[in-house]
């Protein structure tokens, strides 16, 4: 038993060393991990492919998960600020809260949008000092 355990440990050590040596010495660009295209049923959203689940539009289709929010679909020319309520969106999982009384900011490249899952209405529930509603980063 001792021989087999020693041999196994020796092989694992050799494999770990070989793997460590085979890695490039220069730092790997983060761009190489970013997909360049997504399958037809997915959309590129913040450096990753995510399922493209339709929502919103005239039918006001809700997202299937309570944790998701409906945002404008960047693949089309339609948008709430361009053509009105007829524009469909996609469901995304927000990762961070933003806005509100503290004025929390989103990471660079992300947008703070109203969280449709709460009862706060931007422009209506502004509060005494204009602090507004909390949003989510998408």
Percent helix: 10-25%
Number of helices: 1
Which series of helices and strands comes N to C? HEEEEEEEE
What's the β-strand tally?
8
Mean pLDDT: 69
Shape: globular
Ends distance:
56 Å
Indicate the low-confidence ranges by residue numbers: 1-32
Number of separate structural domains: 2
Strand order of the largest sheet: 3-5-4
Q: Give the DSSP E fraction (strand runs of 2 or more residues).
A: 15-25%
Rg over CA atoms, rounded to whole Å, is: 23 Å
- Major pleated sheet: 3 strands, antiparallel
Query: Structural class of the helix and strand makeup?
Result: alpha+beta
Question: What report would you give on this structure?
Answer:
The protein is α+β, with helices and mostly antiparallel strands. The protein has 2 domains: 35-93, no CATH class; 94-138, no CATH class. The protein has one helix at 2-22, and strands at 42-44, 49-51, 54-56, 69-72, 88-92, 97-99, 112-114, 134-137. The strands form 3 sheets. The protein has a 3-stranded antiparallel beta sheet with strand order 3-5-4, with no helix packed on it. A 3-stranded antiparallel beta sheet has the order 6-8-7, with no helix packed on it. β1 (42-44) and β2 (49-51) form a beta hairpin. The termini are far apart.
């Amino acid at each position: 038993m001792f021989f087999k355990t020693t041999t196994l440990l020796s092989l694992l050590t050799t494999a770990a060393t070989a793997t460590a040596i085979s890695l490039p010495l220069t730092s790997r660009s983060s761009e190489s991990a970013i997909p360049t295209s997504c399958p037809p049923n997915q959309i590129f959203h913040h450096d990753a492919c995510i399922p493209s689940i339709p929502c919103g539009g005239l039918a006001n289709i809700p997202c299937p998960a309570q944790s998701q929010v409906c945002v404008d679909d960047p693949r089309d020319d339609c948008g709430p600020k361009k053509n009105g309520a007829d524009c469909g969106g996609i469901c995304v999982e927000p990762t961070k809260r933003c806005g509100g009384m503290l004025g929390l900011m989103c990471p660079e490249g992300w947008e703070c949008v109203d969280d449709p899952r709460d009862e706060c209405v931007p422009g209506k529930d502004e509060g005494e000092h204009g602090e507004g509603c909390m949003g989510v980063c998408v």
